[in-house]
Design brief:
Layout lengths: L1 H16 L15 H4 L11 E10 L7 E12 L4 E12 L4 E16 L2 E15 L11 E2 L2 E2 L15 E14 L2 E8 L18 E8 L1 E2 L10 E11 L2 E12 L2 E9 L4 E13 L6 E11 L5 H4 L2 E10 L22
Antiparallel strand pairs: 1-2, 1-17, 2-3, 3-4, 4-5, 5-8, 6-7, 8-9, 9-10, 10-12, 11-12, 12-13, 13-14, 14-15, 15-16, 16-17
Length: 337
């Protein structure tokens, strides 16, 4: 018991005060489009889209790892683009290392031939803080564990409640049944220190590719599809990837994914999406759920895996219902999910 408490105390202090941070990654990346790439902002059929996604990682381990992202974006055909807002929050570990980001997004699209090329810019502010009262130091431990009411002589966190500017950009291309995109975050490499020492938030880059194979069953205008995809992430010298495929037909989408870093397995993921259309042709509610079964050295029996839930809503404003969207018949990123 003493050893476990000591280890958790040390890990908590290290993670909270000094470790090089890495961004969280959603298994349902397609249900967090603005988080994946700001170029996907405004890329949908209606006028307004609201997205919410929640990730509860390794629920059986002490110290919660919870992640949330909320976004709202407007599709503005007259400007060939969109504007949006995104809020992300994470809470990690027994000292509740909290990080919150609020960003504005602008995107612009160009159509040519059977292709759609989109660009996105993202800028906002991030706040980072810990709950210092929940830190446990060595001088608060004895042979029986944590000393009740014990007060540590350790210095308080000097620069708690850190605020900094954060920026990102991205590009996305859809050509026929093929999609490819690239995004970069933390391009200004902000200093997120809580101690006064320099602690640079490393840039995160992610790229992805998808291809849509439509299955002609001879009688259905809404063809079922098989969509293989791969997503690569690179941050702080670490590369990871997710690879898998979805089967999409009408209002249901089922996916199977593998995630790893090329050296060791991380998880197998199963995902489900259900679309409920309400009213106009561009109005829908989407429910998404997925579960990661850990396959790494951290066994599933110890972690209970990771669960995500997603909810989105798209609508067309009343005075725009029936308007033709200027898409030249080209596919967009939303056709792949």
């Amino acid at each position: 018991m003493k050893t476990r408490l000591f280890i958790f105390a040390i890990l908590t202090v290290c993670v909270s005060l000094g470790a090089a941070a890495q961004d969280h990654i959603y298994s349902q990346f397609y249900n967090a489009p603005n988080y994946l790439n700001p170029a996907l902002n405004g890329q949908f059929e209606g006028d307004l889209r609201l997205n919410m996604i929640y990730r509860n990682q390794w629920s059986s381990l002490p110290g919660p790892l919870n992640y949330y992202t909320f976004s709202a974006d407007l599709n503005l055909p007259a400007l060939n683009g969109g504007i949006g807002l995104m809020f992300s929050k994470s809470s990690e570990g027994t000292a509740y290392l909290n990080k919150m980001n609020l960003s504005g997004i602008y995107s612009y699209s160009v159509e040519f031939g059977n292709s759609t090329l989109s660009f996105g810019l993202q800028a906002g502010f991030t706040n980072r803080r810990i709950d210092a009262d929940k830190l446990v130091f060595l001088d608060q431990l004895n042979s029986g564990g944590i000393i009740p009411g014990g007060v540590s002589g350790a210095s308080p966190v000097e620069f708690n409640n850190k605020m900094f500017f954060d920026a990102g950009t991205g590009i996305n291309l859809v050509k026929g049944n093929f999609m490819i995109g690239l995004a970069g975050q933390h391009l200004n490499k902000p200093n997120e220190t809580l101690t006064g020492a320099t602690s640079i938030l490393p840039m995160r880059f992610n790229g992805y590719m998808s291809y849509k194979f439509e299955i002609d069953n001879g009688y259905d205008d809404n063809l079922p599809s098989v969509i293989p995809s791969v997503v690569l992430y690179r941050q702080a010298g670490i590369t990871s990837f997710s690879a898998g495929m979805q089967y999409k037909h009408r209002n249901v989408n089922v996916g199977v994914w593998y995630r790893g870093d090329g050296k060791q397995q991380d998880a197998l993921v199963i995902s489900f999406i259900f679309d409920v259309f309400t009213g106009g042709s561009n109005d829908k509610v989407r429910f998404g759920a997925s579960h990661d079964a850990t396959t790494s050295k951290l066994p599933y029996t110890k972690t209970s895996g990771t669960t995500e839930g997603a909810l989105s809503y798209e609508t067309t404003f009343q005075d725009h219902r029936g308007d033709a969207r200027n898409t030249m018949g080209n596919k967009r990123c939303y056709d792949f999910y």
